[in-house]
Amino acid sequence: MEGFGYFFCNQDEKDRREALPVLRSLVRQFAAPKGSTESVRRSLQDARERATNRASQLSSSECCRQLVEAFNLYSTSVIILDALDEVLDDELDILVEALEDAIAETKDRGRVKLFVASRPEKSIGAKYGSSSTVIIQAQDNEKDIEKFVTKEMDKFEKKYPNSELAAMKDTVVRAILEKCDNM
User: Which residues of the chain form beta strands (DSSP E)?
Assistant: First the structure.
């Protein structure tokens, strides 16, 4: 049984650029084991009730405890954090530390796979250590992009053989490849 959580960060939205909303979202996504007859784990229901009684929400430390418990239920847990560079700097440190703590407390750390997508503007890779970090940049995909654009241009050319755009295929491909560093 596998668990999965995904979060897209966005600097323009408060709840998408701070650590606690990210952690709470992951807790919700890992709330109930897939295929379980129980809708939400009892311990999470209890934690939520305690927070509600305090007129509060789950804290960072409670989110970590809940994630550890969830990770231990699955053979593999996958977390994808997309656009992590959009998280505020001080919040990023909190989020990274919370996830590292949760993963470290899991019975078998190898059960948790964390994938991060980010622009290279921040040293996010350094926060995770070089042994577990694979950096892929736009130029690493240049051949794939070129192949895709060429294939699409060939389709266009077959559909519209007399088009001026089809005659400019090489120019279009080069122009797109020049701009792909921003992808």
Answer: 2-8, 76-82, 112-117
